[in-house]
């Protein structure tokens, strides 16, 4: 099956949100939604999510799933807002519990913060399959960037989150808590074992040097041939050395502090304090 894919690019965070629908039918899913956030003022906005919602309503589609490829460190998820407006179940990988345990400690969340993934409607395990109408979604656990990263394989399309970027940009960083370049390499090999014609939809694009336009669709064949980090039969030891050397030069993402606190809660804000207001924490010298 060849699902229809509509991409929404958020230039503020270089994130691509995908609307995936049956080629003939109304059932659809949203993958990696964005809640707009102005860090300086602490204010959220729903314009990006509203564009997705408007498209679904204009096409008279039936939203069944709101899927996360992982706990994002560079943008806030709009999953609860979209769910409130249109329904659907929020899903993520079952290794979210590892992420919640890690960052629950870093943010000193205490016992009120559940670390069992219960904020999500569905936790996916390696090898699971769910349906979007008549479309089968196969779940691949592809950790390395984070412990909970998933790839959703829907017909001839694979939604890889941050594991792979466009071939001229390479792969995602592996230096967050729980990340691993060695594990990342193995995950990438699983993705590259899919048929060469499989369409790959990446989670972010930053325009590689020399490229003037944003791009987010490639293929397994193109990745195998041209990816600057893993293409051309790259050896595992060489990839690990390259990835770890590059990661040591990277700054933390601009929105990592708010993103992690909110996204590990399935996009919900922290519990309000005694004044009825939600607050974010900034752990000093921890990240």
Strand arrangement across the biggest beta sheet = 1-2-3-6-7-8
Over the alpha carbons, how many angstroms does the gyration radius reach? Answer: 18 Å
Structural class determined from secondary elements? alpha/beta
Mean pLDDT: 96
Q: What order do the helices and strands follow?
A: EEEEEHEHEHEEEEEHEEHHH
Your description of this structure?
The protein is an alpha/beta fold and 287 residues long. The protein has a single domain, classed as Ribonuclease Z/Hydroxyacylglutathione hydrolase-like (Metallo-beta-lactamase, Chain A). It is 24% helix and 23% strand. The strands form 3 sheets. It has a 6-stranded mixed sheet, with helices on one face. It has a 6-stranded mixed sheet with strand order 9-10-11-12-13-14. Strands 4-5 form a two-stranded antiparallel ribbon. Helix 2 links the parallel strand 6 and strand 7. The radius of gyration is 18 Å and the shape is globular.
Topology (elements, then pairings):
Elements: E1 4-10, E2 15-21, E3 27-31, E4 36-38, E5 43-45, H1 47-58, E6 62-67, H2 79-86, E7 89-93, H3 96-106, E8 122-124, E9 129-132, E10 135-141, E11 150-154, E12 157-161, H4 181-192, E13 199-202, E14 217-219, H5 220-226, H6 236-247, H7 256-263
Parallel strand pairs: 3-6, 6-7, 7-8, 12-13
Antiparallel strand pairs: 1-2, 2-3, 4-5, 9-10, 10-11, 11-12, 13-14
């Amino acid at each position: 099956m060849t699902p229809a894919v509509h991409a929404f690019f958020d230039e503020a965070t270089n994130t691509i949100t995908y609307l995936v629908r049956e080629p003939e039918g109304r059932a659809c899913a949203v993958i990696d939604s964005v809640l707009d956030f102005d860090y300086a003022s602490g204010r959220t906005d729903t314009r990006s999510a509203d564009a997705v919602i408007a498209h679904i309503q204009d096409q008279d589609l039936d939203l069944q799933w709101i899927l996360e490829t992982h706990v994002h460190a560079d943008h806030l998820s709009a999953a609860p807002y979209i769910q409130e407006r249109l329904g659907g179940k929020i899903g993520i990988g079952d290794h979210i519990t590892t992420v919640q345990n890690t960052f629950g400690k870093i943010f000193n969340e205490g016992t009120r913060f559940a670390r069992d993934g219960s904020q999500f409607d569905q936790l996916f395990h390696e090898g699971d399959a769910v349906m979007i109408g008549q479309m089968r979604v196969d779940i691949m656990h592809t950790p390395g960037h984070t412990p909970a990263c998933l790839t959703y394989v829907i017909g001839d399309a694979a939604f890889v989150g941050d594991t792979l970027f466009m071939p001229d940009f390479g792969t995602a960083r592996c230096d967050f808590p729980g990340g691993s370049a060695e594990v990342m390499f193995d995950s990438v090999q699983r993705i590259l074992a899919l048929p060469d014609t499989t369409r790959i939809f990446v989670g972010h694009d930053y325009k590689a040097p020399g490229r003037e336009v944003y791009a987010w669709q490639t293929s397994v064949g193109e990745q195998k041939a041209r990816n600057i980090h893993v293409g051309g039969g790259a050896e595992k030891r060489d990839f690990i050395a390259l990835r770890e050397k590059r990661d040591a030069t990277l700054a933390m993402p601009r929105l990592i502090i708010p993103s992690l606190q909110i996204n590990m809660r399935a996009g919900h804000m922290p519990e309000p304090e005694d004044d009825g207001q939600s607050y974010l924490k900034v752990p000093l010298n921890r990240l």
